[in-house]
Amino acid sequence: MIEPPVGSKLHARLALVAAALLWSLSSFFTRLFLTPTWIGVHEPEVSPLALAFWRVLFAGLFFCLIVPRKAMKFSPLMFLMVVIFAAMNGLYISAQMIGTAANAVFLQYTAPLWMVLMTVFLLKEPIEPRGGWVVGVGTLGVTVIIAGNWLTGPVDQGAAIAMALGSGVAYAAILVCLRQLRGFDSGWLTMVNHLGAAVCLSPILGFVPLPTAPQFICLAVFGVIQMAIPYWLMARSLRLISTEEAGAITLLEPMLNPLWAYLMRPEQETPTISTAIGGVLILGALAWRYLPRKIKPAEVVHST
C-alpha cells in the first residue's frame, strides 16, 4: 500500500474524529444481528465470538489487498499485541450483545485510565497530577456503573460489565503496543492485528454454523467500514500525536455509540441513571485531563 503523506497534526486529529465516528457504529451493527429488520440478518443467530471472528477476518482481508510486502516487518511485541487484540474484540462484542451498548462502551473507554497506570508501572514514566485525578474520578465513575447495573436487568448483566472492563484494559494495552511500534507501517500493523485475532478466534467455527449470504455481506461491511478503516486511521495518526491525545479525541465514540443502539432498540437500550452518571464521570474526567493548559512562564523558559 502506498500511503499518502501523513500531513499535519490537524489532519491527524481529523482522521481520529473520522475513526471515532466509524467505531461508534459497532452498536448499530451488533443490533442488526439482534433485531428483526428488513435485512433479516438476525436469523440464524450469530454468537458474539463468531461475530467478533468474522469482523476481524474481513477487516484483515481488506488490508491483505493493499499492504505491500516490503512493509511486512516483524517484532516480538507483535505476538503479544495480537493476542491482546483478539481478547479485546471477543470481550467487547460479547459485552455489546449480552448487555447494553452504553455500559459496554463507557467501560471500554476506561482505557486511558488503565493506560496511565501502565505507563507508570510498565514504562516507568512519571504520573502527572491530572493523570492521578483522572484515575480517581474515572474509577468513581466505574464504581457507579457497576453498583447501579450489576444486579439489575438480565441475569448476565454482571458478566457483560466484567467483559466490558476487560476490553478496556486490553484496549489500553493495544494503545501502548502501537506506541512502541510506531515505526512500523500503519496498514501492516492493522493487518497483523486483525488476521492474528481471527486466527486466535477461529476455534469458534467448530461450534457454530456458517453465516447466510446476507449475513456475510453485512459482516464484510462491518469489518471493513467499522473496524479496518478506523484502526488504520488511528495507527497513522499516532505518528504525529500522542496516544494520550488520541484517546481524548476518540471520546467522541462513546458519546455516539449508545445513540445508535437506542435508535435501533429504544425499549432495551435506554441508559440507566447510574450508567449516565458513571459515563459523565468517566468522560468528564478524561476530557478535563486533555483540556489545553496555559503554559506558565517558568515552563516556557525551561522549554527553551
Automatic annotation (TrEMBL):
<feature type="transmembrane region" description="Helical">
    <location>
        <begin position="132"/>
        <end position="152"/>
    </location>
</feature>
<dbReference type="Pfam" id="PF00892">
    <property type="entry name" value="EamA"/>
</dbReference>
<keyword id="KW-0472">Membrane</keyword>
<feature type="transmembrane region" description="Helical">
    <location>
        <begin position="214"/>
        <end position="234"/>
    </location>
</feature>
<feature type="transmembrane region" description="Helical">
    <location>
        <begin position="101"/>
        <end position="123"/>
    </location>
</feature>
<feature type="transmembrane region" description="Helical">
    <location>
        <begin position="74"/>
        <end position="95"/>
    </location>
</feature>
<dbReference type="GO" id="GO:0016020">
    <property type="term" value="C:membrane"/>
</dbReference>
<feature type="domain" description="EamA">
    <location>
        <begin position="14"/>
        <end position="146"/>
    </location>
</feature>
<feature type="domain" description="EamA">
    <location>
        <begin position="160"/>
        <end position="287"/>
    </location>
</feature>
<feature type="transmembrane region" description="Helical">
    <location>
        <begin position="190"/>
        <end position="208"/>
    </location>
</feature>
<protein>
    <recommendedName>
        <fullName>EamA domain-containing protein</fullName>
    </recommendedName>
</protein>
<dbReference type="InterPro" id="IPR000620">
    <property type="entry name" value="EamA_dom"/>
</dbReference>
<feature type="transmembrane region" description="Helical">
    <location>
        <begin position="158"/>
        <end position="178"/>
    </location>
</feature>
<keyword id="KW-1133">Transmembrane helix</keyword>
<feature type="transmembrane region" description="Helical">
    <location>
        <begin position="12"/>
        <end position="34"/>
    </location>
</feature>
<feature type="transmembrane region" description="Helical">
    <location>
        <begin position="46"/>
        <end position="67"/>
    </location>
</feature>
<dbReference type="InterPro" id="IPR037185">
    <property type="entry name" value="EmrE-like"/>
</dbReference>
<keyword id="KW-0812">Transmembrane</keyword>
